[in-house]
Amino acid sequence: MPGATVEEKIITATFLCENSFNDFLNFHKPGWNELITKPLSEKITIVGLTVEDIFPRGVELSEGVGLHAFSSSFLVKPGLFVRIRPGKKNVVTGKLKEAGLSFTMQGDDCFAFPNSTKLDTVLELDKDALVQDLNSQKVLNSLKDPLSVSRDPASGIQHWVSGLGHSLSAWDCCAASGGKSILLYDILKGQVELAVSDIRESILSNLKKRFSIAGIKKYKSFIADLSAENPSIQEKKYSLIICDAPCTGSGTWSRTPEQLYHFKTSMTDAYAEKQRKIISNTIPQLEEGGLFFYITCSVFKKENEDQVNYVKEKFHLQLLQMELLKGFDKKADSMFVAVFMKN
Question: Which domains does the chain have, with CATH numbers?
Answer without folding.
Answer: 1-49 (no CATH), 134-341 (3.40.50.150)
